[in-house]
Amino acid sequence: MQTFVRPNVGAGAKTLDASCYISAEIFAAEQERIFGRDWLCVGREESLALTGDFFTVQRAGESLIVTRDAGGTVRAFFNVCRHRGTRICERDSGHFQGSIQCPYHGWTYGLDGALKVARNMVEVPGFDRTEYPLKEAAVALWEGFVFVALAPRARFDEAFAPLMGRFARWNVGGLTTARSVTYDVACNWKLIFLNYSECYHCPLVHPQLDKLSPSDSGRNDLSEGPFLGGYSEMRQAGTSLTMSGHSSRPPLGTVAGEELHRVYYYTIFPSFMLSTHPDYVMVHYVEPLAPNRTRVICSFLFDPQTMAEPGFDPSDVVEFWDVTNRQDWHVNELTQLGLSSRAYSPGPYSNAEGLLSAFDRHYRRVMEA
Ligand code: FES
Ligand SMILES: [Fe+2]
User: Ligand 1: does its nearest atom lie under 6 Å from the Cβ of 318?
Assistant: First the structure.
């Protein structure tokens, strides 16, 4: 049973020190302690429909090749040849014809990572090709999303226990990405998460969102730990967060009752934000590039049956959130500018910012672990 409560904050809770947002040393430590150990969401399984389909991702200073092998298993290989270390695959995505070949001397690996062909090596005394498979990161599949972990602290099902089954009513695992928009935002990755976790800014920054969904309607059910969030209400039943405020799309899955006028927002530390709407799902993939630079990919998922209907057009949703996202990025970039000033010192969180204080607590815990 989920229990939802009004946002709240403990007395004396303040924002983090400036160094957490601007220091290259802290950024490097985060890459090691957070992005090198946590489960990171890197895309959708639907991108790997066929054996040999692949995409590459960069995380924690590593390049990974994510592909589906002949047995149907999704694997994530370090993009590093076992011969002399060469980066094997330079493309963002594509299809391997049954094997993965290094462009330098042609060592060739199976889709399961095993080294199959290494020219002129059989004569080398003591060489055993079974000792040189591609190295692998851990992979987990959840609700159609692909997660990778370089050196996981915990098993995926243990780490994600609080979220298991939570999104079944929206059938998130069966949805398809209709559109994705990529943003390069000039701020620290944590500001993106913090901004997502409060609607204190909504009346000023998002007048069009505030008109459809009141900023004080938020209620939270996950308010401590790596996963934080809850719902906001629509002012009127039957409306949707789109440019027109309406949608002709049917509700997803088995969504009914009060969920027809609620939008749920969750932050999934440290790589991902998931929002379920009655008729679509929006996700943000967050990739830190530098202390003051973050790539965010915002994707919109719909029911494949709805998408197959003539005239399906997700533009009303994509445009609404493109406007909203850009409003957010703008204020996040302004915050980043102020954080590097000598005038900045940690400021007090409001009662509408309890989740931000919880985010900071979780951040401190993992950085100190
Ligand atoms: S470095 Fe890959 S085959 Fe030589
Ligand atoms: Fe916002």
Answer: no
DSSP 3-state of 151: coil
Instruction: Tell whether pTM > 0.90.
Output: yes
Mutate to test the pocket of ligand 1, among 87, 89, 99, 102 (most ligand atoms within 8 A of CB): 102
Q: What's the pLDDT tens digit per position in 219-268?
A: 999 999 999 999 999 888 778 899 888 888 999 999 999 999 999 999 99
DSSP 125: T
39-152: CATH, from 3.30.450.20, 2.102.10.10, 2.60.40.10, 3.40.50.720? 2.102.10.10
DSSP tag of 348? B
Q: Which residues of 238-265 are buried (b: 16+ CB within 10 A; e: fewer)?
A: ebbbbeebebebebbbebeeebebbbbb
Nearest CA to ligand 1 atom 1: 84
